[in-house]
Design a protein that fits this description.
eight-stranded parallel beta barrel; alpha/beta
Length: 550
């Protein structure tokens, strides 16, 4: 049953019962004790109230409490398993409107979430471009957001997405907080302002997330900047809960910060080519292969006789009734490689790739001094014709060093019979295999429980286990941002999101999806492959919301 099935919540149900009980009693006593007008009015008023309360669609019949829910205790060494969203109203002075909306807080709370992160641009609360002058009107808008957090039982985490001297997004700051003393002094001034302003608010309700997504840099240099900001905050508010993002844009935990007694925030954008496919702000993402989840079980590198321990074919299995064209995007070749494609044991394609300076087929060539070989970037498409009724396709180097295939495409006779496969790019794995099935005139990867389990475990190894090691050192951990851009196919996005959520639930990590309304979120996402429903005036991805609430 959809969470948006019309249902009565508990207060409405109780009021209905009371109203009908009173009407029933008045009816049976009417002959001997005519009801007073006030009694009839009371019963009708309760009935009207119940109907009005039940008029909105509510999540899965839950009791939506208007009174305060007890938010969990939050400390630097143990963050709660918060669940919520990033709200982007002050995300950028270049395009955000700047005003948080109470409706967002109310709806997030109604759905049963308990956390909002506010990534903000410091330029939105300074006056006349002077980063030492504060605009009280803009700051009062942040005050309201924090009050709405208290009103609707949401923990609010204030984040400087753009801090004086640094932002992960363009435009680049004039001064560099990692190298120059002046922006660090001003950034400390800003955090001092916020610490003094909100020092009366409990850590249950408010935290400070210092700098959004620092770059890859020396951990001790990062520690120097973070320690300066922490000291500025603690001079005004010694017990404030403080969170620092991991290095390399939030991907890497920083054990060196543990002695500051602050928590840390991870990111949930793994694999990046999956989550940011065709994202306009990521150069080249429009040329990436269409992402799939779970990954197909194929690995990009084919190894020849120079690496006998890893040699073997890339295998595609299925019952291919129709003739197919197999497209192979060959990216890199080391030294030389003879590639063959076999369909049920019969060779249907062969090609010799040779890396020599006078060659013309490749795009680039360079000499690898460590291995004393030439390596070439071909970045070209090759095709093999697969006969009908083929059941097994093998792609293999029969002689040579190694070769990397970054994309495969199977195309059948129908306009919809096209399937793109994206091999994983890790070095040192056998090429693997995948099973394909034909359903309703379309080709699809046959996804078994084992493939899902392997994908989820690999995701855990890459994006969760390093942070578990940090938590074991006494540092609280959460995932401050995660999500999938709206150009990744929805079915694949849903499977990936489900695997992330299972991993984080097992690890007891809280999270904040980027965003609530927008390209990554469940409301107004602009996805072209979603059956939206209308909810509170928004096009809503009910399937995504249901999954987030599990």
């Amino acid at each position: 049953m959809s969470i948006f099935t019309r249902t009565f919540h508990k207060p409405a149900t109780n009021t209905f019962k009371r109203a009908f009980a009173l009407l029933k009693r008045l009816f049976w006593q009417a002959n001997t004790h005519p009801p007073a007008p006030v009694q009839v009015f009371a019963a009708l008023w309760m009935l009207f109230f119940a109907m009005n309360a039940a008029g909105n669609t509510l999540p899965d019949g839950q009791d939506i409490k208007e009174s305060a829910r007890a938010l969990p205790e939050a400390a630097y060494n143990h963050l709660p398993r918060w669940r919520g969203f990033n709200l982007l109203n002050k995300y950028s002075a270049d395009w955000s409107d700047g005003s948080f909306e109470e409706k967002d807080f109310r709806l997030i709370s109604k759905l049963g979430f308990n956390f909002v992160r506010l990534p903000m641009d410091y330029r939105m609360w300074i006056r006349d471009g002077d980063w030492e002058k504060f605009d009280e009107t803009a700051l009062s808008e942040i005050d309201r957001a924090i009050k709405w957090g208290g009103k609707y039982d949401l923990h609010v985490s204030i984040n400087f997405h753009r801090i004086p001297g640094y932002c992960v997004n363009p435009p680049e700051e004039e001064y560099n907080i990692w190298k120059d003393p002046e922006p660090l002094r001003v950034a400390s001034l800003h955090w001092t302002k916020f610490a003094r302003r909100y020092r009366h608010i409990s850590n249950r309700n408010l935290s400070f997330n210092l700098i959004n997504e620092p770059p890859r840099m020396d951990a001790e240099e990062y520690h120097r900047v973070i320690e300066t900001l922490v000291e500025a905050i603690r001079r005004e508010d010694p017990k404030r809960l403080i969170i620092a993002d991991g290095l390399n844009h939030g991907r890497e935990p920083v054990p060196e910060l543990a002695r500051l007694k602050i928590a840390q925030s991870a990111r949930g954008y793994f694999p990046f080519r999956f989550t940011h496919y065709r994202a306009g702000w990521v150069d080249g993402s429009d040329k990436w292969p269409i992402p799939v989840w779970p990954p197909t079980g194929l690995y990009a590198y084919l190894y020849g006789d120079s690496r006998p321990e890893m040699t073997g074919p890339m295998v595609i299995e299925g019952e291919f009734i129709h003739p197919l064209t197999l497209g192979m995007h060959v990216h890199t070749v080391s030294d030389h490689a003879r590639l063959k494609v076999r369909a049920d044991g019969n060779t249907v394609f062969k090609h010799d790739f040779v890396c020599e300076p006078e060659g013309e087929e490749f795009r680039e060539i360079h000499y690898n001094e460590e291995w004393e070989v030439y390596q070439c970037i071909y970045d070209r498409e090759y095709e093999a014709e697969i006969p009908p009724k083929t059941e097994r396709i093998e792609i293999k180097i029969v002689e040579g060093d190694w070769l990397k295939i970054t994309g495969l495409t199977l195309t059948g006779p129908g306009s919809d019979m096209t399937l793109t496969l994206t091999p994983r790019r890790e070095w040192g794995y056998s090429p693997g295999n995948v099973k394909i099935e034909e359903k309703d005139g379309k080709l699809a990867v046959k996804i078994g429980d084992r493939i899902r389990l392997i994908a989820r475990q690999k995701l855990r190894e890459e994006s969760v286990e390093p942070w578990l090691e940090l938590r074991d050192k006494g540092v609280g951990v959460m995932v401050g941002e995660w999500g999938v851009y709206n150009k990744t196919p929805h079915e694949d996005a849903m499977r990936w999101m489900e695997d992330c959520l299972k991993n984080w639930k097992q690890a007891e990590f809280g999270w904040a999806l980027w965003n609530f309304r927008g390209d990554f979120g469940p409301l107004e996402s602009g996805r072209g492959d979603v059956d939206y429903i209308e909810w509170h005036g928004y096009e809503t991805d009910a399937r995504m919301l249901e999954m987030l609430l599990r």
